[in-house]
Amino acid sequence: MAPGFFGVLLFYLLPFAETVRRSFFQSGSGSFAGMANYRAVLHNAAFWRAVRNTAAYAAAGVPLLMVVSLALALLVRRLSARRKLVSALLVPTAVPAAVMVLVLRILADKHGLWNGMLAAVPERFAGLSVFTGADYLHSDLALAVVTGSFLWKNTGYMMILWLAGLAGLPKEVDEAAAVDGAGRWQRWHYVTRPQLAGSFFTIGMLSVLQIFKSYREIWMVAGSYPQENIYFLQHLLQNWYLKLEFDQMAALTVLLSATLLVLCLILQKRLESDL
Questions:
Q1: Which of 22, 68, 192, 232 could form a disulfide with 250 if both were Cys (CB 3.0 to 4.6 A apart)?
Q2: CB-based burial, 30-39: b 16+ in 10 Å, e otherwise
Q3: What pTM did the predictor assign?
Q4: CA angle, residues 223, 226, 232, in degrees to nearest 5
């Protein structure tokens, strides 16, 4: 236990404590700044744009990822050829970021596969032609494309976590409910779902963390200043780093960490009350 605690202290707690300290000082002169760095962050228009976009991305991606991966986990449990399906769904998890970027460019570019398929649609479906010729990653559809790639990349991994949670549930309780006349939905709502509270919390938090980890592919596709609706907090941090604005970076990191901690506590309390 001691080596593990020492590792957490050395690589996580002490660096975060130093980040908190730096957030109250000017990066250039090293003079005490009080709350000036936090005020600079909160009065920055790019910060609020990034907050709105990141929140929209998380609000769309996290629930969809949890629902789709859970649905697939429930489906896979009933299939005889589950190993092949699980293996196929895990392939995107192992795909390198460079390959992911190449796939996005092949699909979503102005001269990509999607536009080629839409161009072949018969004229009686001409309403779809509004999308033909669009550069999806540089249009209002960019957030939808990014959310779709997020689901494609992470669904298999989250499905495995759901399968692990479902495998740990005692079958006797579900069988007893079925004997008592409970239907499939009733058994899910009153028997299975409450027992998955720990899985809901773990997978929910991991899904939120995956939202922030997906920046790499977006940056490789669209650069430091992408389409406005996919300009996320990670882009803001990257641009401040290039401008050597370490004091504002530290303040934003503290604000973001505090927000994630509050969300974690709220999610835990909500699950405890609902489940």
A1: 22
A2: eeebeeebbe
A3: 0.85
A4: 100
